[in-house]
Amino acid sequence: MNTFLAFGREHVERHFRKTGQSVYMLLKRHVREKVRGASGGALPKRRNSKIFLDLDTDDDLNSEDYEYEDEAKLVIFPDHYEIALPNIEELPALVTIACDAVLSSKSPYRKQDPDTWENELPVSKYANNLTQLDNGVRIPPSGWKCARCDLRENLWLNLTDGSVLCGKWFFDSSGGNGHALEHYRDMGYPLAVKLGTITPDGADVYSFQEEEPVLDPYLAKHLAHFGIDMLHMHGTENGLRDNDIKPRVSEWEVIQESGTKLKPMYGPGYTGLKNLGNSCYLSSVMQAIFSIPEFQRAYVGNLPRIFDYSPLDPTQDFNTQMTKLGHGLLSGQYSKPPVKSELIEQVMKEEHKPQQNGISPRMFKAFVSKSHPEFSSNRQQDAQEFFLHLVNLVERNRIGSENPSDVFRFLVEERIQCCQTRKVRYMERVDYLMQLPVAMEAATNKDELIAYELTRREAEANRRPLPELVRAKIPFSACLQAFSEPENVDDFWSSALQAKSAGVKTSRFASFPEYLVVQIKKFTFGLDWVPKKFDVSIDMPDLLDINHLRARGLQPGEEELPDISPPIVIPDDSKDRLMNQLIDPSDIDESSVMQLAEMGFPLEACRKAVYFTGNMGAEVAFNWIIVHMEEPDFAEPLTMPGFGGAASAGASVFGATGLDNQPPEEIVAIITSMGFQRNQAIQALRATNNNLERALDWIFSHPEFEEDSDFVIEMENNANANIISEAKPEGPRVKDGSGTYELFAFISHMGTSTMSGHYVCHIKKEGRWVIYNDHKVCASERPPKDLGYMYFYRRIPS
């Protein structure tokens, strides 16, 4: 009753011991089967049958057979003294007022129900009479770039003249150079739509004049003016277009195994997740994630420690929420088989507790999606994008040196060759999933597809029923071959020619992950801007061997491209700003730095990239990183001759790092305040070039560290001692091994695009396949392995 945090019975004692808070309110809802008289009619209502808690009722219960009764008490710890509520006589007035306020308050999750923020946006006053110039502009479905700079992200289409420009300061917190806003100030055209958000249900529209996100009731008409044909895309209840329902029915039936009688599964690891309204993408990913032992051990295995050391507000702690969800899925407490009627009478007497229908991930979804413009909405999302978002959160919130997402991480070797000089460059990058293209040209049933297409068109023209769907059959080997083939590099700058030239890129595995996630690239846009999905059948193997895709590095006879940086082309309107940025390193754009750091690059390198490209955005800085990442001082702190020392990653916060690599006292104090020894802090900082985050990682990864006071004192007294500081920065953490895998899970999608439809997950447990369809968990009879979207493979020990 002090923090207004809620706990289950098994955790309230832990909170009391941790905080000393002794007054709690016990809220309970009883579900009772109605007692009927001899004639079959219901007996008169019992006393105190009032429902006063704002809780969801169970839709599976017939209200004619069951009744609800809410109960509230104050419980005083540690004696568990109970005071029934309401109790005006015994309780102080302030306590009574607080209790009444809690009991009458609305559930905070009402805010996450379908009437969310997009329905609360105002209609723009400019939408009705918006002027659109007849200038012949047509917007392609992809390949957009800002008309004033090279940015290819956070692009906005002005609905008056069709200009595509980068944004800044918008409600989704994306970065950019602000050219869309500058264009409005120059021309006065008020409305813009964000490219990449356009779906049959609408898009993100911003009004510069009104300075807020708005609704455009005539958006389809305004988009059609620029060739984006959305008029015929009327969404139906299941997210499909009307003329797509019949061809897609088989997909929904096959993936959900609708034609078979599935046996429900119960017990640990067989708990479903309730659908909160288009949350199936989250449920499918989390079921697959918590079927991996490393995630089970990191969170559920550490439950007592994580809960005991969680912050005072555990609702805002990622590790606590992951552990809570994992425990719910794996404990079996929320997946118990229905009890026979005689056991109900013996054990539960007059109370009947209905069968559990999965757990609700409301609190978890609210936390992991906060501040994210897409996941925080109730719209359907891409499961692959959420998977990467989750991996990013795991990386940023890892517990000490333990990081379960290491099982997904692998290194990709990219070989880029200049077609004119035949010289090559080898680079490595970090990735977490393998994206396989759909090789439609390799379909083995082309004659059937052609015949089906002719029959379908004829049926549509004559308004006859559509024929049964014929799905393209694609060999997995063809998709794997398409992945390994060279691809053209756009805007390739050859350092050998010091000019733009044709270039090709091939990708190979520099390391193989412990768990390989394979995404089939099924989604694209048609020329009419209608989202398309390749409805294909791919013979995904149960056993996968990709050892032949192992990178080989520079080969005999190959000549490397010279290590020369391409010239940085600076737009005229950014030149003055660039000169200003080169004056003071403390003004580095931290948002761009963090965008690059989240890709896996060293923080010091990200700062240098943003600095040397004049705060022109993450994409320009990314190009700088690609060119300079093999330089020996790539991850070293930024040092500018004109500023008297190093402008390190912590310069703006902790003060500049001295040339003698003596750790700043401010950083040392932060580490020692966490309970570590001073000599540990100093040695860790020296070993990581005074990088706070990596220093903490170093401490956790060196538990065998023994205090050597003489060594530390000598190092502190010797300002020029830099033996340890010359150590190379540690590379990405990978768990390399054999490239032989077996399939253990896959996520399937039903619908026409990632913005609609439904996700289902199949996982192989205890030797048999199990289907996880929201709250329903059943033994799978015919797992549709050929129709999946994301596949999860585990390494086979060699």
UniProtKB/TrEMBL annotation:
SMART domains found in the cross-reference section: UBA, ZnF_UBP
Highest taxon, organism lineage: Eukaryota
EC number(s) on file: 3.4.19.12
Keyword DNA repair carried by entry: no
GO biological process: autophagy; protein deubiquitination; proteolysis
Compartments reported by the entry: Cytoplasm
UBA domain mapped to chain residues: 587-628, 662-702
Keyword line: Autophagy, Cytoplasm, Hydrolase, Isopeptide bond, Metal-binding, Phosphoprotein, Protease, Repeat, Thiol protease, Ubl conjugation, Ubl conjugation pathway, Zinc, Zinc-finger
Keyword Zinc-finger: yes
List of catalytic residues: 280, 758
Annotated catalysed reactions: Thiol-dependent hydrolysis of ester, thioester, amide, peptide and isopeptide bonds formed by the C-terminal Gly of ubiquitin (a 76-residue protein attached to proteins as an intracellular targeting signal)
Annotated ranges, domain USP: 271-796
Regions that span the bilayer: none
Domain UBP-type intervals: 122-230
Signal peptide: none
Enzyme superclass (EC): hydrolase
UniProt-recorded Gene Ontology molecular function terms: cysteine-type deubiquitinase activity; cysteine-type endopeptidase activity; ubiquitin binding; zinc ion binding
UniProt binding sites for Zn(2+): 146, 149, 166, 179
InterPro entries: Papain-like_cys_pep_sf, Peptidase_C19_UCH, Ub_carboxyl-term_hydrolase, UBA, UBA-like_sf, Ubiquitinyl_hydrolase, UBP13_Znf-UBP_var, USP
GO cellular component: cytoplasm
Subunit-structure text: Interacts with UFD1. Interacts (via UBA domains) with SIAH2 (when ubiquitinated). Interacts with BAG6; the interaction is direct and may mediate UBL4A deubiquitination. Interacts (via UBA 2 domain) with AMFR; the interaction is direct. Interacts with UBL4A; may be indirect via BAG6. Interacts with NEDD4.
Similarity field: Belongs to the peptidase C19 family.
Annotated function: Deubiquitinating enzyme that removes conjugated ubiquitin from specific proteins to regulate different cellular processes.
PANTHER family reported for this sequence: UBIQUITIN CARBOXYL-TERMINAL HYDROLASE (PTHR21646), UBIQUITIN CARBOXYL-TERMINAL HYDROLASE 13 (PTHR21646:SF105)
Name under which the protein is recorded: Ubiquitin carboxyl-terminal hydrolase
Source species of the chain: Carlito syrichta
Gene: USP13
